[in-house]
Queue: 2 jobs
Job 1
Amino acid sequence: MAIEQIRTFLAITLLVVLFLLWQAWQEDYGPAFSSINATGDANQTTQPGMVTPFQGGRDIPLPPRTDSSVDNRMVPTLPGTDRAGESMASSDEENRPIRVQTDVFELFINPNGTGIYQLNLLAYPDSQDQPEVPFSLLSQRMGHYFTAEATLLGSDKTLHKPPRFRPEQHDYRLAEGEDTLEVRLPWDSGDGISVTKVMTFHRQSYAVDFSYEVKNAKEEPVAVRLHGKLTRYPPAGQNSIFRLPTYTGGVISNAEDLYQKVDFSDMTKQDLKHTSQGGWIAMIQHYFIGSWVPDPDAMNQYYTTQDGTLYTIAVSTDKIISPGGHDTISLRGYLGPKIQDRMEAVAPNLSRTVDYGWLWVISQPLFWLLKKIHSLLGNWGVAIIILTLLIKLVFFHLSATSYRSMAKMRKLQPRMVKLRDTYKDDKVKMNQRLMELYKEEGVNPVSGCLPIAVQIPVFIALYWVLLESVELRHAGFLWLSDLSTYDPFFILPVSMGITMFLQQKLNPTPPDPIQAKVMMALPFVFTFLFLFFPSGLVLYWFVNNVLSIAQQWVITRQIIAPNT
């Protein structure tokens, strides 16, 4: 390989590495979001304790929007445990959590109005070592605090704190043959205000519908505000340089910005205050999501708060209940794995939380194709191999152009070395003679670079597809039990390193001894880097290398062999 191409290859490799490092840096130290409202006035505020109803009408006092009267941390724990997981006896029947079980998850709800504090995903084991233990998306475990609240507050003094509901039972199950499960929790203030909290669960669905039916028997209107809040600790190892470059933190979608990340450092710097119609909020992590989708036709207020090590992203919606009237205010949640078609059915752009980065336009069709292949073959490992083959076929002619250029440069290598030795003290003359040689033999020294550059965005896009797809979690292939984690026997990364070494052997040795050593070191460097990469990603690179070796070997033999 010519020196020019070596430099190009090294530059491309460096750019890819720098891109990944830049993306990881952006997650931890990127610019903070802008704080604006629907009118574009960043300084407009609402007087604490007041709300201006968007439906019209006079101002009615409400608790502050940040809901300081409700302590996010005061969520009851699982029966028989305290927040540290230690056993304790509870004789308070009213404080018993409400347990709900459907075909996809088991969750526990605080009857005092503060929401879901434990949610187990029954189809997703926490680990392969303990397949009977479901993954807990929402939890109060030490270091893994993550809760979802749908809290109602109001201007009436009885609604200055969340209603204390009294359930008729504490255990609900989705019955066989039923498609929905409805949990109704009544509450009566005894002073003309009554509220029924209705939670609706659906078979084969991670969507949960929350609504509050409010009746106002008083002679004055009552303003109510429904808060949908997601509160969590930053995950352990969030700032570790060894973690996968996947995003964990808040996301907001609204009319002004369809997909806006609000990470924990943003929440630390300032509280978000934003008003917009429709939209949604989410707390996302690798493979899983907690989200709230408010009324798409209402003007909703988005905000964030930080309380010590707890971070909250929230949305609230206001409604006026007229004297003697009744109305419903609702909120929808999606709490579960990041399955794209299911999320998109809940809210527009919610599937974007499968974070493919800025190359999502390429990643999205690649995932669609991968999913179609899996539906036909039934194995994600085989699907990755077939997808790699199809991508290779798409770029077959571009790759062939690159490999022909490399083969021609290899054929000219002895003459190029001789020219460099002859004119080693005159760089200008040497370059002039090299260009004359290229022209004489009809060789373009940069013709092999463009095909490689064109393929790089596709390779990076597929990297994110394989990294972000929850479908690969615990998916097996041959000796691999989980394509989303590293190969425990390191067979794939070592095999990939061997194929990289073979590719190097197909190329001529660079005349510069330093560059020759760098090129020979690359297979070992990449093998080390890929040791703990998800095996699905390494499988792709290994198969791609094998196909590249076969194509390059055939083309090189066609060009060089007839003249040897």
Job 2
Amino acid sequence: MPVKIIQSTPSAYAYPLLIKQLLHTPMAIAPQQEITYQGKLRYSYRALRERIGRLASGLAGLGVDAGQTVAVMDWDSHRYLECFFAVPMMGAVLQTVNVRLSAEQILYTLNHAGADVLLVNREFFPLLAQIAARLESVRHFVLIDDEPKPGDDPVNFAAEYEKLLAGATADYDFPDFDENAQATVFYTTGTTGLPKGVYFSHRQLVLHTLGLAACVGGASAHGRLHREDVYMPITPMFHVHAWGFPYVATLLGLKQVYPGRYLPGALLHLIDTEKVSFSHCVPSIMQMLLSHPDSGAIDLSGWKVLIGGSAMSKTLASAALKRGIDVLSGYGMSETCPVLSIAHLHSDDFQAPLEQQATLRCKTGLPLPLVDLRIVTSEMADVARDGVATGEVVVRAPWLTQGYLAAPQASAELWAGTYLHTQDIGNIDPRGYLKITDRIKDVIKTAGEWTSSLELEDVVARHEAVQEVAVIGVPDEKWGERPLALVVLKPDFEGKVTEHAIRNFAAHWVERTGISRHGVLLQVRLIKALAKTSVGKINKREMREANERQAL
């Protein structure tokens, strides 16, 4: 029986899901709400809307038209927020450039995306000088300058950002167009080979914003984001749209705090003085803030923090909870826009001891509305939802990227079997909580069995001397692979704790916690720092390669 299609009347408005539609509510309910940059510059949502119009008019004056690409190299700022809206609202494509990549990688991403205009902060002049002559498509450069000062510019700038806005009209007429039009592009990191371009449409970004808002707004108490919160991202805005939260914060009309470059002391100061109540970051940033000398003097109680990017250890979760931080995990990846699940606890869970709560908060949580999340075998058969059976996490949601830019083979592999393949291994318990147990490429294969590197990391992190740990698999003639823990000690324990002591401690806990028996084969090596990706995640691939070079 055929479905019945609703026919719209000629006078009805079709209401395409465009990013511009996210501005209606804040302009109606919070036009005087505040946005601040570093606690120095402050303006209202009404001024934000005017500046979005001026930015679009200024870019149009430089010849930017629908379908062209505007790239941005900046720290987290009000300017970035303006670009999040103005560029895609014009029908152009916003490229968020990962400024922590190497100069050659940045050059590749700009050329591959076909960037037409590049907005660049003066702090990145050394990078720009290395690549400017080899940029293939950039026609105009716009200077971003917090503190204007004379100097040798590596390129001829068409305009300075604030002067561009000052000379442009705020009355830009943002048109309607197909909601499936591309809105953004950025490039994945931490992969083998060249970075891959991930792109999203207006429809996908709007639906992700609504799904994320429904999830965090529907929480009973902890991890809830509401209109009286003060939002500050501690995830780079070049990384998956800062996990989509700037769009959510704007939709809800929240006070927003943009910190610029991440400096621990400055972040803590802003949390304190601006009364920040909701943030998100990777575990290493949380560890850095908790261990900073200024941290003890600042009241962090009531600060809600979503942890993602890599697994949060129970040790880190417990340390945050003891400071009164409402910490919880989320899960997603660049290709998923990114949020798929968040570990909101049930009310009954708050009666449990903090140690038990930490275990729940470290799970990767319950799926967002509209997310179809499965754990499957290699044949795409579902495994039991008993919290034990594991398989690959595959997913469908209306905001997942449809593929990689100009990479059809990789796109087909990503979507094999009409589900997006995350390459993560996990399980789902009877209450529906997802737990990621490892990356497929990071699991340690010992004597034909899989041992989770994440579970071993959690064991090692229990030792009081351990500041950071990463467990990787290393070749072994007898076992095939053997786990190696790379450990960074807390400063007070350097020279006082040995590798042997940590290994014995871990072996004891492996036997107590029921981790794979091959976990007792763990080796330990003390190092000064763990390799990290450009967005602060632990880079196990680089550490495995470094270990192989050392073994040669």
